[in-house]
């Protein structure tokens, strides 16, 4: 190809992609979750309404020294000083006054009387405290959420008052998901942090240690970690081979939920991500924010970076100690020129690993709801390329195999040569009535399908005007009759013609 382009650095999350649901993207937030350290600080609660005892316990649990002012405390509130696990609670059986608020970091109004509460809250603000009022959201600077406590890890959940029961259910689910033993592991992390930081100077070594640590915690959450764990983890990290590496990662056909757990982990570990045009932008949202992302665009049409340049860049980055992810659409080993990239790494002595992905054919078949190897219709499944190195129809395709009535054929990169490919296959014996589909943008929100027969697919595709990466699928296994013809798995707007 005469025109070529250079690898181009891109931002980790483009404005378009951040509108999606990616974790690094920023959608509007109903509230800003922040965490307030209260260890050894003074907190004041005034009043004795129903919510008061629990709030006092919470403040004390966070390590605050709580002064409670209540002229007529409920029995429940009286019992609180004897029930706390941290901090301290002093009950003053009298009305609050302005000087009580001096030096308070956090104050809570828990009185029945609205006017009294308004005065208290104003006094709290004058004293420079963070202010909350039980059951009076309009008077609050900050609000409490539901809590999952694995201190030092704390999870806070808010629905901003929209659905408290829903929030409680989410809380219960998260409780179930986070083993209680995490508490001990995260506590150990806090205790070991300094030693680990002193031992490893580079970011990647520290990260490697904490990844090993996290793997252990997830593998044995209910075992209490010991100094032996620390010693082993330090040793393993030191012994691990140093330097960069390349991981070829399959990004799947588009839908980010089709990423494998390994792919996610590789993305999170990457210092640099070299990706193709065909990789859906949402997928890059799973990278670390600090990771460099570079578009090395290799679509079938239009200018691409030269494969040699990509190989050289990949090797050079890995040799400079970077963890390089070469992110490729679908599966890296299916029509992805992975062989050349693997060879380049091996020749340069750079370790290379491969994380498979869902190939476009699998994604398309799943969204169509068809079995590619339907037992009545197909004995064989073949993946074929629609163009050769020069972009034309490959001369050496096995036409007998394409005409075989008991095969399901998936043609990658079919668009330029669609008409000639089908015509030639029919000349070679493919029945003109054989079901033939072109699936555009498989698994993406803009997926479109043109469904026809080998004879008329090319015309229908032309008439459709659809755009985007597409796959040709041909074979009796794709014939849908009766109930099957109603595509339960497809949105109506995805089904065209
Ligand atoms: N390694 C990829 C294929 C790369 S070749 C895989 O395993 O899927 C590029 C071709 O893949 C495109 O020309 C198109 O034919 C196909 N392709 C990739 N993503 C696709 C998608 N979401 N929908 C339809 N076809 C797709």
List keywords for this structure.
33% helix, Rossmann fold, 5 domains, 19 strands, alpha/beta, 497 residues, six-stranded mixed β-sheet
What does this structure look like?
This protein is α/β, with parallel strands linked by helices. The protein folds into five domains: 42-144, NAD(P)-binding Rossmann-like Domain (Rossmann fold, 3-Layer(aba) Sandwich), CATH 3.40.50.720; 147-177, no CATH class; 182-239; 242-358, Tetrapyrrole methylase, N-terminal domain (Cobalt-precorrin-4 Transmethylase, domain 1, 3-Layer(aba) Sandwich), CATH 3.40.1010; 361-496, Methyltransferase, Cobalt-precorrin-4 Transmethylase, Domain 2 (2-Layer Sandwich). 33% of the residues lie in helices and 19% in strands. The chain is built from 16 helices and 19 strands. It has helices spanning 15-18, 52-61, 75-79, 114-126, 164-177, 182-199, 203-219, 227-239, 261-269, 281-284, 307-319, 338-348, 360-368, 399-403, 418-427, 457-464, and strands at residues 8-10, 42-46, 65-69, 88-92, 104-109, 130-133, 146-150, 153-157, 245-250, 272-275, 292-295, 323-328, 352-355, 380-385, 407-412, 435-440, 448-453, 470-474, 495-496. The strands form four sheets. It has a six-stranded mixed sheet with strand order 1-11-10-12-9-13, sandwiched between helices. A six-stranded mixed sheet has the order 14-15-18-16-17-19, with helices on both faces. A five-stranded parallel sheet has the order 4-3-2-5-6, sandwiched between helices. A hairpin with a 2-residue loop joins strand 7 (146-150) and strand 8 (153-157). Helix 7 (203-219) packs across helix 8 and helix 11 (307-319) runs parallel beside helix 12 (338-348). The longest helix is centred in the middle third of the chain and has 18 residues, at 182-199. It is elongated. The relative contact order is 0.09. It binds S-adenosyl-L-homocysteine. One of its GO terms (biological process) is methylation. Residues 246-454 form the Tetrapyrrole methylase domain. Its EC number is 1.3.1.76, 2.1.1.107, 4.99.1.4.
